[in-house]
Specification:
Blueprint (H helix, E strand, L loop, with lengths): L2 H6 L1 H12 L25 H4 L20 H6 L4
């Protein structure tokens, strides 16, 4: 699963993970916490994480914007 796929369609991706693991999927999997309940300091402390649900990700950089040092990794992960 890619982060971009999860943020694009969280239900589809979490259902696929549950199917792979052989466990039931529930709608609550899309809500990881009530707004304001997530402890500060846990991951990215921005409005997105404080929302309590998966939010759309930002656009990926264009291939020409990727630094040369990162290109081999991006290529091996299928981003180039």
């Amino acid at each position: 699963m890619r982060y971009e796929s999860l943020t694009e369609d969280p239900e589809r991706e979490t259902r696929a993970v549950c199917e792979f693991l052989g466990i039931p999927w529930t709608r609550e999997m899309l809500e990881y916490g009530m707004p304001g309940v997530v402890t500060k300091g846990l991951g990215d402390w921005q409005d997105k994480i404080r929302s309590g649900s998966v939010q759309p990700g930002r656009a990926l950089p264009a291939p020409g914007e990727i630094p040369d040092a990162l290109r081999p990794m991006c290529r091996s992960w299928g981003y180039l």
